[in-house]
Design brief:
By secondary structure, this protein is of the alpha+beta class. Helices cover 35% and strands 25% of the residues. Strands 1, 2, 3, 4, 5, 6 and 7 form a 7-stranded antiparallel β-sheet that branches. A hairpin with a 2-residue loop joins strand 2 and strand 3. The relative contact order is 0.23.
């Protein structure tokens, strides 16, 4: 199971970075990734939450230099035109795309889980991520830059654990809909 999670996450990163950024992103072996965290504290931390039968979060972390490189490739603009706001938007967009690509590799009942809008902050991804049964972390190399990607989640056995969009709120449980 753990190897499938890692493989699916690596495939999602490869797909997003290849298609959207025209970049190759290589995951380090697990033992290397565990021993070598990011060189600098993450400047950008993007999170996307899963809700429904699949509950948890996807976190993408990288420093400001990596953010500038990714934003440049995504937007097609030079480094001098890149602001912190654009870098934050890029972090959120990439995290959302990776979470979606990873989710689509699951059976339909799990893939039906909803994704939140991305949340971008500074610092480490700490928000309840350690309370989940499954936890996968990848450390990736990207043209001399490094980034981490972490998935932590639970599978709910209850098919009633679904959410519906009501009045634009993707988090309203179906059991509370009149």
């Amino acid at each position: 199971m753990q190897q499938d999670l890692i493989r699916h996450l690596d495939e999602a990163v490869t797909e997003v970075f290849g298609v959207m950024l025209n970049l190759s992103c290589t995951a380090e072996p697990e033992q290397v990734a565990a021993a070598n965290p990011l060189d600098r504290p993450p400047y950008f931390n993007a999170s996307v939450l899963f809700s429904g039968r699949l509950q948890g979060r996807c976190c993408l972390q990288f420093d400001e230099q990596t953010a500038t490189k990714l934003t440049s490739n995504l937007m097609g603009i030079s480094g001098c035109e890149i602001s912190r706001d654009l870098c934050a938007d890029t972090a959120g967009e990439l995290c959302n795309m990776i979470a979606g690509c990873w989710k689509k590799r699951h059976p339909q009942d799990l893939a039906a889980s909803l994704l939140s809008c991305p949340i971008v902050t500074q610092g480490q991804c700490q928000h309840g991520i350690d309370n989940n049964r499954e936890d996968v972390t990848l450390l990736n190399h990207l043209d001399g830059h490094r980034l981490t990607l972490r998935l932590a989640f639970n599978y709910s056995n209850s098919p009633n654990q679904t959410h519906k969009r009501v009045r634009g709120n993707p988090r309203t449980p179906s059991s509370s809909i009149p």
